[in-house]
Write a structure and sequence with these properties.
Blueprint: H1 5-11, H2 38-45, H3 60-73, E1 77-81, H4 84-95, E2 101-105, H5 110-121, E3 125-129, H6 134-140, E4 145-151, H7 163-173, E5 176-180, H8 185-188, E6 198-202, E7 216-220, H9 244-256, H10 263-273, H11 276-295, E8 300-304, H12 314-320, E9 327-332, H13 338-344, E10 349-350, E11 360-363, H14 373-379, E12 387-390, H15 396-411
Parallel strand pairs: 2-3, 2-4, 4-5, 5-6, 10-11
Antiparallel strand pairs: 1-7, 6-7, 8-9, 9-12, 11-12
Helix pairs in contact: 3-10, 4-5, 4-9, 6-7, 13-15
The chain binds pyridoxal-5'-phosphate.
Length: 412
C-alpha cells in the first residue's frame, strides 16, 4: 500500500533492519569500512555486493536519508550532497560536456545563475529563457541541447515555470529535464508528475527546516532513458540502464569531486524531514494570510505570491501544487524605504536563509542579487525595494502584528 509522505518518512528506516532494534536510526560517523576477506572488499568495489568502502561516496546515514528522499520524490534513487549547490553542480558537471548546450529558466537562484557562467567558461553553451512559457524554452533549443533546467517557484519573484509544458517538450525531444524542487519540496509537488528526469532539492531549506545542517540531493525519477544519453562513460554503461545516470552522478560528483554530505548533517536533515508536512502546512497557511494582508497595505506597491488570484501563474500553481509555498516577496511604494521597514521589524529576522521554521526577511536587490547588477535584476523583475519573506511557523497573529507595528512606525 502506498503511504502518505509523512508516514513514509517516519517508517522508512524500518523497511531495512535497524541496528539493535532502535526505533530511530543511529548515526554512523565511520569514514572507512573493513571486510573479512579481500574478495569481499573487491566485490563491494565492483558493485557486486552492497556495502561502503570510503565515506566520500556516502555512509550508512546519508544512505538512509537518500532512501527517504527517494520515497518523498517517488524516485528510483537519490544521491545526497554536502549542499544544494553541490547537487546542482554535480548535475551539470557530470552530465554535460564541452560543446553541449543547456537551456535554463532565467528566473533562477542567484548562485545557480553564477554557476552557469562558470559552465560557459569551460565550454558549455547556456541559454536563459522565460520558463513560465514552454514555447520560449522550445525556441531556445538547438541541435546540441542536452538538458533543460528549471525551478518550480522562482525565488524571489515567485514566477512559476510551465512545468507540464516543458516536461512534454523534453519528453518529445529526449532532453534531460532537471527540476529544482527546493521551493515547493516533495510535500507540495512531485516533479515526476510532469515528466522530470532528475529532481534537485536543497535539503538545507524546508526539508531540514531548522537551519542547522547543509545538504542537497539529486533524485532520478526513472523516466529518462539513459541508454540514449551520449555522455554516460563506458564504465557506467553496465547493467540496468535505469541506474546509469545516477551512478555517474555519484561516482563523479561524490567520489571525484568530493561534494559529500556528512553523517551529522544527514542525521539532522532526516530528523527535520519527519515534520516537513506539518511545517509546510503551517508555513504555507501563514504565507497565504500574510500575502493577502500585505496586499491591502497602503505602503505596499505589489505582492508576489502564487496563492494570490492576481498572480500570473495562480491557476497553474493551484492545479500543480498542494499549497502555494512559504515564500513571498513584496515591493514598496516610492518613498518607503525597505531598510527602514526591515529594521522596524522586531520578530522577523533579517537573514538570507529560507525554508526555516522562523520567519526571515531580506532586501533582495542589495544582498543576494547585488552581484549580478541592475540590468539583469531588471530582466528578472527584481525592484530595488523588493523584500523577500521566507514565512515560518510562528502563530500567524504575531507575524501580522510585527508587520503592522513596523508599517505604523514608518508612517508615524
Ligand atoms: C538554497 C537553494 C539552492 C542551494 O542550496 P544550498 O543548500 O544553500 O547550497 C539551490 N536552489 C534553490 C532554489 C535554493 O533556494
Amino acid at each position: 500500500m502506498k503511504k502518505g509522505l509523512t508516514t513514509a518518512i517516519l517508517h522508512a528506516d524500518r523497511q531495512a533492519e535497524i541496528e539493535h532494534g532502535a526505533v530511530h536510526k543511529p548515526m554512523h560517523t565511520a569514514v572507512a569500512f573493513g571486510y573479512r576477506t579481500a574478495r569481499e572488499l573487491a566485490a563491494v568495489f565492483q558493485g557486486e555486493k552492497a556495502g561502503h568502502v570510503y565515506g566520500r561516496q556516502g555512509n550508512p546515514t546519508s544512505q538512509a536519508l537518500e532512501a527517504k528522499v527517494s520515497l518523498m520524490e517517488d524516485a528510483v534513487g537519490t544521491v545526497s550532497f554536502g549542499t544544494g549547490m553541490a547537487a546542482v553542480a554535480a548535475v551539470f558537471l557530470t552530465l554535460l560536456k564541452r560543446g553541449d548546450h543547456v537551456v535554463s529558466s532565467k528566473y533562477l537562484f542567484g548562485n545557480t545563475n553564477s554557476l552557469l557562467q562558470t559552465l560557459e567558461g569551460i565550454g558549455v553553451e547556456v541559454t536563459l529563457a522565460d520558463a513560465t512559457d514552454a514555447p520560449q524554452i522550445e525556441a531556445a533549443l538547438k541541435p546540441n541541447t542536452r538538458m533543460v533546467f528549471v525551478e518550480t517557484i522562482a525565488n524571489p519573484r515567485t514566477q512559476v515555470a510551465d512545468l507540464e509544458g516543458i516536461g512534454a517538450l523534453c519528453g518529445a525531444r529526449g532532453l534531460v529535464y532537471v527540476v529544482d524542487n527546493t521551493m515547493t519540496t516533495p510535500y507540495l509537488f512531485r516533479p515526476k508528475a510532469v515528466g522530470a528526469s532528475l529532481v534537485v532539492n536543497s535539503l538545507t531549506k524546508a526539508i531540514c527546516g531548522h537551519g542547522d545542517a547543509l545538504g542537497g540531493a539529486v533524485s532520478d525519477t526513472g523516466l529518462f532513458d539513459w541508454s540514449a544519453y551520449p555522455n554516460i562513460a563506458a564504465a557506467y554503461r553496465k547493467g540496468n540502464a535505469a541506474g546509469w545516470g545516477l551512478q555517474q552522478i555519484r561516482k563523479k560528483g561524490l567520489r571525484d569531486m568530493g561534494g559529500t554530505l556528512s553523517a551529522e548533517h544527514a542525521h539532522r536533515i532526516a530528523r527535520g524531514a519527519e515534520t516537513l508536512g506539518l511545517r509546510m502546512d503551517r508555513a504555507c497557511d501563514n504565507a497565504m494570510r500574510l500575502s493577502q494582508w500585505l496586499a491591502a497595505q497602503p505602503q505596499v506597491a505589489a505582492v508576489h505570491y502564487p496563492g494570490l488570484a492576481g498572480h500570473a501563474e495562480h491557476e497553474r500553481s493551484a492545479r500543480l501544487f498542494k499549497a502555494f509555498g512559504a515564500l513571498l516577496s513584496f515591493e514598496l511604494k516610492d518613498g518607503v524605504d525597505c531598510f527602514a521597514l526591515l529594521d522596524a521589524l522586531e520578530l522577523v529576522i533579517k537573514s538570507s536563509h529560507l525554508g526555516d521554521a522562523r520567519t526571515l526577511a531580506i532586501p533582495v536587490a542589495h544582498t543576494i542579487f547585488w552581484e549580478m547588477g541592475p540590468a539583469q535584476r531588471k530582466d528578472m523583475g527584481i525592484a530595488d525595494s523588493l523584500v523577500r519573506v521566507s514565512v515560518g511557523i510562528e502563530d500567524y497573529a504575531d507575524l501580522q502584528a510585527d508587520f503592522e507595528q513596523a508599517f505604523a512606525r514608518l508612517a508615524g
